[in-house]
Amino acid sequence: MLIAPLPKNEAARLLALKGLEILDTPEEEMFDEITSLASLICNAPISLVSLIDETRQWFKSHHGLNSRETPRSLAFCSHAILGDDLFLIPNAKEDVRFQNNPLVDEAPNVIFYAGIPLALDDQIKLGTLCVIDNKPRELNPEQIQMLKLLGKQTVRLLQMRKDRDRLEIEKRSAERATAAKRDFIAAISHDIRNPLNSLLGMSEMIRDTEINPTVLSYVDHIKNAGEVILHLVNDTIELSRLEESSSSLIKEWFHLGQCLSIFDLFFIQETKRKKIEFKLNNNVSDQTFLLSDKRKLEKIIWNLTANAVKFTSKGSVQCFVDLENKTESNAILNIHIKDTGPGISPEVKNKLFQKYNEFLPEGCEISGSGLGLSIVKLSLEELGGKIEVESELGKGSSFNVQVPVVWKKEENQNLTSEIKPKQETTLPEFHKTLKILIADDNELNRKVLRSYLKSLPTEITETNNGIDTQRELENSQFDIAFLDIEMPGKQGTEIAKSFSGKTNRPVLFACTGLCMPEEKNLILASGFDYFMPKPYLKEELYLHLGEIAEKRP
């Protein structure tokens, strides 16, 4: 018996083999199918995918053989990897290299051997695809050709397996990065919302006092800056969900004219402040209903119009809407927003829909988040729509949007496109003194809520931790309880769950900076009646209180 010498490129060969990360892995069906087919084609009882490492030959697939490995010194494959073509031994007992080899003289009695080297390239031979018989024999030309083809397929499987594992690792890494980004955004959102609640709430409180106009203008600037930060937080969350594709489409039938009327009223008021003109040209029948994601469509048209208004210091902003009917039920919704702003340079235009691309021309007082147009682009991709931009420096810009929709006409006397102008926020009317609990470990947050409630008939109790909050709720009868979610001692969700099923309990408000959609759903599911994100909006609070007043006057 002769032991095969080491290949000249043994170090590189072993490095390539280990790089596949395949040694000592479980059997895999795709390799077992190769060996089964090789045995069938060559009419051989044993077929192996054999890989040679430093000391052994290890079988990735072992058809007709129970062993998973043998010593390298005894391996026929150690000889086979020294050549480039089929290594064929018709009768091992007559070959000096294998006489007295235990694999020949004892089980599995390798008498006939045919092995094709598994080569990553012309030089790197990892092992073989081989067929074995316990009697002398030959292969016909067709069998040899098929064995060579199966050898090539085995090499492809080895490479595909490595690529698959690499992609799986990259996928898991990307998923971890996405989860980390989501957690980071959620944490930042929470940490920013708490101080924003104090900033915006205090600015609202100051505006309700008698102060000179100069100080009032400073307060308005503070409030505007706070609202920009809030928009940035909201846009970051929205963009993150769009990039993750976790913002699924929610299609519903809605009345287009009603949405546009609210939109029209809002921007007429906004443009009056800037002393520019706003005009909506709605060419869609008032009886038209659309089937699409209403929230995403509104986000697209509002973001584009808000951008146009922000960047236009004189002249006008116009919005044109029409429906291009393709069939009796399918159509293209065309939205065209045109402004007389400063226009967009070609350099900026090419980067317009990138994240954080903040374009701030002369005349724009407060910059935005740089995310609005990114949200528009991703939302349109989800809806199957597209957007085109036309612009000329000094003359303005046009944004042309096309969105495929399903449409129908329906007469409904309860719907009207005439929406009344927004009224001043009205106080809800209660005919008794409300016993209210405000639970928050942040004193300024409690002060803001107390300020918003001061015009109502209330008797307010305050707590700054979960333990005292639970005790107060158990020992006293309250009409309404505002509970912060993250308090020391006990969280607001734990307290809400403790009241589950009880009839004589207060109306529970969840007051929190945890505003990711999944967080909101979990919080409400714990037993809260209302979700009130920080920073608190007085109008939203009064709306909820109005609903309560109707049920519990």
Automatic annotation (TrEMBL):
Q: Which UniProt keywords apply?
A: Kinase, Phosphoprotein, Transferase
Q: Does the keyword Nucleotide-binding apply?
A: no
Q: Which InterPro entries did the record assign?
A: CheY-like_superfamily, GAF, GAF-like_dom_sf, HATPase_C_sf, HATPase_dom, His_kinase_dom, HisK_dim/P_dom, HisK_dim/P_sf
Q: What is its EC number?
A: 2.7.13.3
Q: Name one GO cellular component term.
A: plasma membrane
Record-listed 4-aspartylphosphate modification sites:
484
- Source domain of life is Bacteria
Q: Which Pfam families match?
A: GAF (PF01590), HATPase_c (PF02518), HisKA (PF00512), Response_reg (PF00072)
Catalytic activity of the protein: ATP + protein L-histidine = ADP + protein N-phospho-L-histidine
Keyword Kinase annotated: yes
Residue stretches making up the Response regulatory domain = 435-549
Q: Where is the Histidine kinase domain?
A: 187-407
Query: Which ranges form a coiled coil?
Result: none
Annotated GO MF terms: histidine phosphotransfer kinase activity; phosphorelay sensor kinase activity
Protein name, as recorded: histidine kinase
